[in-house]
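Sample entry follows:

_____
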Amino acid sequence: FLEKSQAVELPIKFIPKGSGRYCCQILLKSSRDVRVYVVECIVNTDHAEAELEFLSPAYQAVIQDIPISNMSRQDWKLEAVLEGQNFYGPPVLYVHPGETVQYPLMFKPIAES
């Protein structure tokens, strides 16, 4: 083990372009030693929020397809939690890597408001 005075810090700046798995190798060489460090970062987005405005005649449904793109290398299982009255959509959506799936959000008002 190295004493603290012998340790060298290696700052790394990581700026992900989105969620997914990022891998890299760091090769350190000297005249007496070669070391390879493998670094893997998994980036998840905790919450994504969006706002949509619906205008529709009473008793008529409006459907807005919302594109969900999976740019990662892993399958996504997304759970939808709809808040508010008169909104409907699938509770679960599966999106494969490299795929874009439309989430059909329906608004069906039962009265004028």
